[in-house]
Design a protein that fits this description.
With about 290 residues, the protein is of the alpha+beta class. The protein folds into two domains: about 130 residues, no CATH class; about 140 residues, no CATH class. Helices cover about 20% and strands about 40% of the residues. Strands 11-12-13-14-15-16 form a six-stranded antiparallel β-barrel. Strands 1, 7, 8 and 9 form a four-stranded antiparallel beta sheet that branches. The radius of gyration is 32 Å and the shape is elongated.
Length: about 290
């Protein structure tokens, strides 16, 4: 009877292990498939949609620390530290700092020998900022003069790639609220403050580990991983697992951060590997945990 229970438990743990491995594979290949589909859709749109904008500003993305970015782009009028302070996330999680500077050039000073009936203060692009009207009345009623300043709607679009970024500045006047004028951008700065991915780095974490052997069991474990070929992927790490009756020294063959696909738990790693317990018996290891 006890042998049947052990075999049944071993089968259960094996199925759990297979299910976890299948889940990791599903997350990984599903993510790759979605990225491929998205890339094909973008390429199709770029081929089918004509170019419509003429004032797109393109710059190279700079790599810099957040501290240096704040020092470089802040001045007496702009304190970027206030922007960082307002973030709900931790400052260490800031990825990009973007600053746009634009001079909106007007048509300048206009001189008239006589007061015009109508005059519009506009930019070089034709965007009306303000308007003057001279309303002439007949008889004894005095002429009227109106001065109107229009509200402006400003739209700044920024697209950030790995090495470069583009920006488009559009402004609409309440005079023509549905017509957006493209305004040339004087200066655009995009700084990437995210640390470069390190392929060789020691990471330490804790996990709940399932030991797959003739006598399956759950254990608490600590692990260290050193090789990270790409983001969210570990290969060849070491693990020490144990409970009140056994200890296992093991090697993690591969690990994947399934938290990258989960909104709340962004650091949730699943590792698979094998090890040897106190009695010299081989043990398969499936672990779910997080890094410090």
């Amino acid at each position: 009877m006890s042998e049947q229970i052990v075999i049944k438990n071993q089968s259960t743990f094996t199925l759990i292990g297979i299910a976890l491995i299948a889940s990791v594979a599903g997350f990984f290949f599903g993510s790759c498939s979605k990225e491929t589909d998205d890339q094909q859709t973008i390429e199709y749109l770029m081929e089918s949609v004509p170019e419509v904008h003429t004032e797109i500003k393109e710059v190279k993305v700079q790599d810099e620390t957040l501290v240096n970015a704040i020092k470089e782009l802040s001045d007496e009028n702009t304190q970027l530290l206030d922007l960082v302070r307002r973030l709900k996330d931790k400052p260490a999680e800031v990825r990009y700092v973007v600053q746009t500077e634009t001079i909106i050039e007007t048509v300048g000073t206009q001189k008239f020998d006589e007061l015009p009936d109508n005059y519009q203060h506009a930019t070089k692009e034709g965007l009306v900022l303000a308007e003057f009207d001279h309303i002439k009345n007949e008889g004894e009623q005095k002429d009227q003069f109106t001065f109107t300043t229009y509200d402006l709607t400003i739209k700044n679009s920024v697209v950030i790639g790995k090495d470069s970024a583009t920006s488009l500045l559009q402004v609409a006047s309440a005079k023509e609220p549905d017509k957006f004028y493209e305004i040339p951008i004087t200066d655009l700065t995009v700084i990437n403050t995210e640390e470069e991915h390190k392929k060789l780095e020691a990471n330490v974490g804790i996990s709940l580990t399932g030991g797959l052997s003739a006598k399956p069991e759950f254990m608490a474990s600590v692990f260290a991983s050193f090789i990270h070929p790409v983001k969210n992927l570990d290969v060849l790490g070491v693990r020490l697992s144990g409970n009140t009756t056994n200890f296992v020294f093991g090697v993690d063959a591969v690990g994947y951060n399934i938290g990258a696909h989960i909104p709340v738990f962004t650091d949730l790693w699943i590792h698979g590997g094998a090890g040897v317990d106190l009695f010299g018996k081989p043990v398969g290891l499936i672990s779910l945990g997080t890094k410090f």
